[in-house]
Write a structure and sequence with these properties.
- The complex is a heterotrimer of chains A (443), B (552) and C (426).
- In chain A, 65% of the residues lie in helices and 1% in strands.
- Chain A is built from 17 helices and one strand.
- In chain B, helix 14 (401-413) packs parallel to helix 15 (431-446).
- The chains are: A mainly alpha (443), B alpha/beta (552), C mainly alpha (426).
- Chains in contact: A-B, A-C, B-C.
- Chains A and B meet through helix 1, helix 11, helix 12 and strand 1 of A and strand 2, helix 1, strand 11, strand 12 and helix 8 of B.
- Strand 1 (437-439) of chain A pairs parallel with strand 12 of chain B.
Chain lengths: 443, 552, 426
């Protein structure tokens, strides 16, 4: 077929955020080297443990979040009108400035927390704990779509098409929802399947193009996003779909709704459980199944996979299809669980949030769930923050981006916080020195 | 120039690649650095060329210590380097590559006329012609090397470093290169060349420095015997051949008939090749890199679709069968480039050992991996193939070249096979592992497999091949018996048929060919050295995480 | 033994095996021909009124009517002829030249216009449409040029979208503050450089995957600009006023019919674009800077060994790419006379990337490709005006569908700079 001058398939690592530790020597010479830590060298188990903790990935994640929060705080402070006023007479009364600054930031973040976890200011107990349920509700599609992006990453593909796949899943699920009349469980299952199929189809387009023509999936999926956005704009105006108010569709049948987990006014629905179950399923798929092995192999080194008899093209399409299916389910859960009908903005920013969720979660299911919860909390809290303190919801986007950027550059975070480099201390047994020997007749 | 290295030390992390290297190269001298893969030769040269800064030690040129912060400094000081993997931009022309970094400029843009002139003048001085406007990617490898030399010399190099220059040349081309080297040396340029090939060192160098594990372990003159040099290089006595019984062949296993493979432009890169390989023999395919061997093996594996012709394995035509099917029907395949095609660097040893057996029992059961089998399999194979590692969960990419290759071979040999196809099986591998790998290959042959080895190293071809096939320009020039002389093979590698090659070789021996004859004569006279098939693992060679270090 | 003379000739292809990309081009041509034929058949009889001149042309050509169906059929025949030629070349295994595909596409576009306007009263303002194409293509050209510079040096710049947006934002604000659009034009590239610096910082210094950095930077820029829009700009609307670049017609040249209004009656940003395209085309392929740039993107190790500082070269050129894209961003605000709006770049950055790939990483090619995308955008907008029976949303999808077809290799073989996307480590 083609001479392997272009890299076969995609080449990013399992975890695209994993920085390449610079290997600054010829392969052959260094690769032989890495010896185990010489235990005798390190003084005490305790120190080593501490060192491990200090350089651990979880700590870095935490610190990255703190750093992002600080930077976000700067942004809030800089644009707060009270602070701007106080800057005017900074030198006369600096304390006012600092007070105003602290006030602005803390109020905003407090509102964020109240909107995300527990609202102390609320009138009733129900209202007070609603935030946490909101977080879980919002996290549901984020987790699903995050799983989608993460799975694709591990198969070596950049699935930037979450938006489009969510939309297609939502459209198909809606159609099954109001178009058919079926008994309770069946209707729901079918609608969910429809959602998965919709998303899978949309993503598979990019997968097939990549496998057959080498078209870069980043561009194709982004274009498909735009196309899907227009598509749904049109769909909700068609006679088939149009519901009561303009821009919304007919409501889906009762039997196709995802049952609520808690009574009104809580919005938490079965979709959340579904997301957790699917996270476990994705874990099993990637770590324990044959298919997952093949996907990871292709994602890590497509050429070696090909030489081992794995079909790179088939894996590309499958990976995109499965990823699309997960994203489609996110869309379905929005319609069948949260909303009850389709609107043009059903996808919201889920598609792009999913990318940051997957990156933060290191493309692994557990991490994705946690990251989804975090970003769900930010989104839920952000709304209250916007209402209570006037800080725009866009701050959440800023926080998300900063968090991901810092996660991606652990050395940067380490530098800022002055942490030690991670470390197994390496020891190579020093080569025994030999006195040089001359051989052959002396010239 | 007179170059002196005093105590050069270079570390990467805690790994010491060069440890207190002392060396002198006189003006106009051809000085060879001998060392096996992984000994530190390339690091030393890169340090000398300014790509690395030494952690300790001094570089002294004509009596003056110098410090290089980058290749620019080294070039200005008169050091030029021809790398083993050419530093040429494939899409640029010869002229563009030669002037890169020192472009002549006229009216704000590059003065291409002047660039072409530089190319012509320099190559004339060296005695050959090169078209300055040819694109590098269109040129054969031997010519590309000359472009590298022109590039170095056009910057007034007074010391020329050549890193494994003959890896890609036929013996006849090597002669031409040696001629160029001698010409330069006679004109006062010092030459430093790096190699791990014993034969050519004695043919061309004035002085030899031997490096092992980052240290200078000896110096020699060309009158040293090969076994002396070899034992200095490796640190113990080495058997310089493979202990091999003559082959006992049985039925034909592989039949390749009129195979034609075309590239994306429609040019045939494998052109009407036919041969058979029987069970119990090793067919070694020799030839300079890029003459169709890669495509031939890929066609056997199934990742290249032939334009015409057939490949038949044990009576079954392979056409239409996917890679996996072929592997499952008894084909074992060791690819040319293990790091890109052989192993998934990030996967563990456990996972790599079953890379091409996924989906079938006993690796997988009903869509899921049988984790217990995987681990058991890994432990067994690591032991059997002496893969040096602390844990089977280590990423294969962290292993040395030799150990990676062992993993590949272990994987391939861990299932019933009728045909083993191995490309460049010991490229970039340390001597200890080379011995091991060669022995395993021969024992597979003895167990009844048909083996095809593709190698650009004539040493390996001569050592392993029961029969030798030579490819040139995509065609099979001929198949000769295993004992054929190096000179004949070299001529065949340029396209000359066997009979004519024998005639011509009889008339004129190349330096290496003569060296072969000498070596044979020496071996006949010398007291036979007990062939070492080490029962205890040797204490040297590149090791990953050797659990406890044996003291020497 | 004397050395041998070596003059190398590349062997000519012995027999044509048709490579996949060439075949695809063949299919594309057949598709366009079929489309043209279909359009011709569907065109109602009646005349299409076509206007070429604008009011300030030196020579006034009156509106002329063109018999819709006949002309469409003629055009369709020409397109079929081109397609036949292209297929012939395809069978011979040789690459179909870009002009064949481009001309076929352009004629099919004209046929479409005829179809839509035949028998109706509306006049088709060809010149206006072409001028609009150039205008809509402007940010795409800048974005594609930015992509070319960055990718040629080995850095994948997905953040073009963010750089465009940052440029638009900065231009709007600074122009409003200064009350002068030209000052805004200076601020735009500065904003682009800032984003480019972040891209360079994370991808070169910390070797984070470049695509990831690009995607995240896009989100970041959207976030920050939207945040500031909703806070500072809301409270201070005079910081986000509509300040437009005046049109600067070039005397004499701008009065030539057709060519004049399109090329020479534009604002400074477009003229800058012309200059930058020409400059880059020459410099990248013939200057010292260009040679070194390309060497770093193709074979950084080789560049390193001749003393070129790979990472510094990458830094500098990523910043340059950021500046170019930032400047292009000014199109959305200052050059269009609009105020800044949230996320106003709407995917242009990614279309620009597609244009870069389609244009084979050369400025010349990128411009042609970008204009083609601009054409599809203009077409979509125009057809909406004509009240065609197709729902408007589908017309708005047009540029994106065209982009997908483009990157799926329907227009020839593409070969990216060999070392792009790979961080350089010694």
């Amino acid at each position: 077929m083609s001479t392997p001058k272009e890299p076969l398939g995609p080449t990013p690592a399992e975890d695209p955020l994993e920085p390449v530790e610079p290997q600054s020597a010829a392969d052959v010479e260094v690769a032989g080297e890495q010896s185990r830590a010489s235990v005798a060298e390190l003084d005490g188990f305790g120190r080593r443990y501490l060192r491990d903790v200090m350089s651990s990935s979880s700590l870095l994640t935490l610190l990255a979040i703190v750093l992002a929060v600080l930077l976000g705080g700067v942004l809030i402070i800089a644009t707060d009108p009270a602070v701007q006023e106080a800057t005017g007479y900074f030198f006369a009364r600096p304390s006012t400035f600092f007070a105003a600054a602290w006030d602005a930031a803390s109020q905003a973040y407090l509102a964020l927390f109240q909107g995300a976890i527990y609202d102390g200011q609320a009138a009733t107990f129900t209202r007070a704990i609603r935030p946490i349920t909101e977080t879980l509700t919002i996290a549901t599609p984020l987790i699903l779509a995050g799983l989608s992006v993460g799975l694709a990453f591990r198969a070596g593909l950049f699935n930037i098409g979450g938006q489009g796949q969510v939309i297609l899943g939502a459209v198909l699920a809606t159609w099954i929802g109001f178009g058919l009349d079926l008994p309770p469980v069946v209707h729901l299952v079918l609608a969910l399947v429809g959602g998965a199929v919709g998303g899978a189809f949309w993503a598979a387009i990019a997968g097939v193009l990549k496998a057959r023509t080498g078209a870069h999936e980043v561009i194709v999926t982004i274009m498909l996003n735009n196309i899907a956005a227009y598509l749904v704009l049109w769909v909700v105006t068609t006679k088939l779909f149009a519901g009561g108010s303009s821009g919304t569709s007919k409501p889906v049948g009762e039997n196709s709704r995802l049952p609520a987990l808690l009574p009104e006014p809580f919005r938490l629905h079965l979709g959340f459980i579904l997301a957790l179950v699917l996270a476990a399923a994705v874990w099993w798929l990637m770590e324990r199944s044959t298919l997952g092995f093949k996907l990871r192999a292709v994602g890590s080194n497509a050429r070696a996979a090909r030489t081992a008899g794995i079909s790179v093209g088939a894996m590309t399409v499958l990976a995109m299809a499965i990823a699309g299916g997960l994203a489609g389910l996110a869309g379905a859960s929005q319609v069948l669980g949260t909303e009850g009908y389709l609107t043009a903005s059903v996808a919201g920013t889920i598609g792009f949030d999913a990318i940051t969720v997957a990156l933060l979660g290191r493309s692994k299911p557990l991490g994705t769930v946690l990251a989804g919860l975090l970003f769900g909390a930010l989104a839920a809290g952000g709304r209250l923050m916007q209402t209570r303190t006037g800080t725009p919801l866009d701050l959440v986007l800023v926080l998300q981006s900063f968090i991901v950027l810092f996660i991606a550059a652990p050395p940067l975070v380490r530098t800022i916080w002055r942490l030690p480099k991670p470390g197994v201390r390496r020891e190579k047994p020093s080569p025994t020195s030999t006195t040089p020997v001359t051989a052959g007749a002396d010239a | 120039m007179r170059l002196e290295l005093r105590g050069i030390t270079k570390r990467f992390g805690t790994f010491t690649a060069n440890d207190g290297i002392d060396m002198v190269v006189e003006s106009g001298e051809i000085h060879a650095i001998l060392g096996e893969n992984g000994a530190g030769k390339s690091t030393l040269m890169n340090t000398l060329y300014g790509l690395y800064e030494p952690d300790a030690g001094q570089i002294v040129i004509d009596g003056e210590p110098v410090v290089f912060t980058g290749p620019g400094d080294a070039m200005r000081a008169g050091i030029g380097m021809v790398h083993q993997h050419f530093m040429l931009v494939p899409v640029f022309t010869v002229a563009e590559n030669v002037v890169l970094g020192q472009e002549p400029v006229g009216k704000g843009l590059i003065d291409l006329k002047r660039a072409r002139q530089i190319v012509r003048e320099t190559s004339e001085m060296l005695g050959f012609e090169i078209d300055p406007d040819a694109k590098i990617e269109d040129l054969p490898v031997g010519v590309q090397q000359r472009v590298e030399i022109v590039k170095a010399l056009s910057r007034n190099a007074k010391l020329l470093i050549l890193d494994e220059p003959t890896a890609v040349l036929t013996p006849q081309e090597t002669d031409e290169l040696i001629e160029i080297m001698r010409r330069l040396a006679a004109a006062g340029t010092s030459i430093l060349f790096i190699t791990h090939k014993l034969r050519e060192i004695r043919a061309v160098s004035d002085a030899i420095t031997i490096i092992r594990l980052g240290q200078v372990v000896g110096s020699a003159t060309p009158s040293a015997t090969e076994s002396e040099l070899a034992s200095l290089m490796v640190g113990r006595s080495v058997s310089l051949g493979v202990a091999k019984e003559p082959a006992t062949t049985r039925e034909d296993v592989l039949e390749v008939r009129n195979l034609v493979v075309r590239d994306t432009h429609g040019v045939p890169v494998v052109n009407d090749v036919s041969f058979t390989v029987a069970a119990g023999e090793i067919l070694a395919v020799a030839g300079v890199q890029g003459n169709g061997q890669t495509e031939l093996t890929e066609a056997i594996l199934g990742i290249q679709k032939p334009a015409s012709g057939s490949v038949v394995l044990r009576g079954e035509p392979l056409e239409g069968k996917g890679v996996r099917e072929r592997l499952d029907s008894g084909l074992a395949y060791v690819p040319e480039d293990r790091s890109t095609d052989g192993v998934v660097g990030e996967f563990s040893i456990v996972e790599n050992l079953v890379l091409d057996r996924i989906g079938a029992a006993p690796v997988s059961r009903g869509g899921a991996l049988d984790m217990r089998f995987l681990r058991r399999n890994a432990h067994e194979l690591v032991k059997e193939f002496d893969v040096r590692t602390t844990s089977v969960d280590r990423a294969v990419g962290t292993l040395s070249g030799g150990n990676q290759q062992k993993v590949v071979l272990a994987r391939e040999l861990s299932r019933p096979l009728s045909l083993l196809v191995a490309s460049q099986p010991t490229r970039g591998v340390d001597v200890g592992s080379i011995e091991f790998l060669h022995d395993r290959i021969v024992s597979e042959r003895d167990k009844g497999a048909a083996v095809v080895i593709v190698s650009t190293e004539l040493d390996e071809v001569l050592a392993l091949g029961d029969r030798i096939a030579v490819m040139c320009g995509g065609e099979l020039v001929g198949i000769v018996p295993g004992g054929e002389s190096r000179d004949v093979l070299g001529l065949m590698m340029t396209g000359i048929g066997p009979e004519e090659a024998r005639e011509r070789a009889a008339e004129h021996h190349t330096l290496l060919g003569e060296a072969d004859l000498e070596a044979e004569a020496e071996a006949a006279d010398a007291v036979p050295v007990a062939p070492t098939t080490p029962t205890t693992p040797p204490a040297t060679g590149t090791v990953d995480d050797a659990p406890v270090e044996e003291t020497r | 033994m004397s050395a041998t003379a070596t003059v190398i000739e590349t062997p000519a292809p012995t027999r044509a095996v048709v490579p996949a990309e060439v075949r695809r081009t063949g299919y594309l041509l057949i598709g366009i021909a079929a489309l043209a034929a279909l359009l011709a058949v569907l065109t109602p009889s009646g005349d299409s009124k076509i206007r070429i001149s604008t009011s300030s042309d030196a020579i006034q050509i009156p509106i002329f009517a063109v018999p819709g169906k006949v002309t469409a059929i003629v055009l369709a025949l020409v397109v079929v002829g081109l397609a036949a030629y292209g297929v012939l070349l395809t069978r011979r295994g040789t690459k179909v030249p870009v002009w064949v595909v481009a001309t076929a596409g352009a004629l099919a576009f004209v046929a479409l216009l005829l179809l839509l306007s035949a028998g109706k009263d509306q006049v088709v303002p060809i010149t206006g449409l072409l001028a609009g194409t150039l205008l809509l293509g402007t940010p795409l050209v800048f974005g594609a040029l930015s992509g070319v510079v960055c990718e040629r040096v080995g850095i994948v710049n997905i953040a073009i979208e963010g750089q465009l947006l940052a440029g638009a934002f900065a231009a709007a604000i600074v122009a409003s503050m200064a009350g002068n659009a030209y000052v805004g034009l200076i601020a735009a590239p500065v904003a682009g450089v800032a984003v480019g610096a972040l891209l360079a910082f994370f991808s070169i210094r910390y070797q984070v995957n470049q695509i990831i950095v690009g995607v995240v930077l896009n989100v970041l820029v959207v976030g920050i600009t939207s945040f500031l829009f909703s806070t500072v700009l809301k409270e201070n609307p005079d910081l986000n006023a509509r300040v437009g670049l005046p049109v600067l017609p070039i005397p004499l040249l701008s009065e030539i019919p057709v060519v004049g209004p399109v090329l020479f009656r534009q604002n400074l940003l477009v003229y800058l674009m012309f200059a930058i395209v020409v400059a880059l085309q020459i410099l990248i392929f013939r200057s010292r800077w260009g040679l070194r740039l390309r060497s770093v993107g193709e074979h950084p190790k080789a560049a390193d060994t001749v003393g070129i500082d790979v990472n510094r070269t990458r830094w500098r050129n990523t910043l340059l790419g950021g500046a170019i894209a930032g400047l292009g961003g000014a199109f959305f605000t200052v050059a269009s006379g609009l105020a800044f709006g949230k996320d106003m770049t709407a995917g242009n950055g990614f279309i620009a990337l597609a244009a870069m790939i389609l244009g084979r990483w050369s400025p010349k090619g990128a411009v042609v490709a970008a204009l083609m995308f601009g054409l599809s955008k203009q077409l979509g907008q125009y057809i909406q005006q004509l009240q065609a029976p197709i729902p408007p949303q589908f017309l708005l999808m047009l540029p994106y569908i065209v982009t997908i077809l483009a990157v799926a290799g329907f227009a020839g073989r593409v070969r990216a700079p060999a070392a792009e996307g790979v961080p350089y480590v010694k």
